[in-house]
Specification:
Blueprint (H helix, E strand, L loop, with lengths): L2 H20 L2 H7 L3 H25 L3
Keywords: Membrane, Transmembrane, Transmembrane helix
Length: 62
Amino acid sequence: MSKHAADADARPELDQVLTDRAQGPAERAVLGFEPMGTMIRLVAFVLFFVLVGGSLFYWLNL
């Protein structure tokens, strides 16, 4: 078995460990634990930001 094949097998687990360690409690509270929930929350936040920001610019004539 070559070194690259062993690295490829271990890579997903390593990525998962690094991802878990990179997220603190506040980040997990905002983004959640499930990938689909995270995506929905991010899309909802972006839509909210665009709607609120666009409305403010419209009403303030900026």
